[in-house]
Amino acid sequence: xxxxxxxxxxxxxxxxxxxxxxxxxxxxxxxxxxxxxxxxxxxxxxxxxxxxxxxxxxxxxxxxxxxxxxxxxxxxxx
Length: 78
Prior knowledge:
The chain is 33% helix and 17% strand. The protein is built from 2 helices and 4 strands; from the N terminus they run E-E-H-E-E-H. It has helices spanning 22-36, 52-62, and strands at 4-7, 12-15, 41-42, 48-50. A 4-stranded antiparallel β-sheet has the order 1-2-4-3. Strand 1 (4-7) and strand 2 form a beta hairpin. The longest helix is centred in the middle third of the chain and has 15 residues, at 22-36.
């Protein structure tokens, strides 16, 4: 639950996928998009990236699975 980042300024999120190959990242991104209907893409850092709208949907999907001590990671407002 700690391998991601939420930018309050841009209201976007990225998932730290630095250790994956470009091919694995492409497969992962396609699977997330197909399975969950999200439009995540790869950013220039090689991480999965969701814009403001996709981040809201993503956080709603994962909220039931986030442990209380990590809920601050998905708080859309301070």
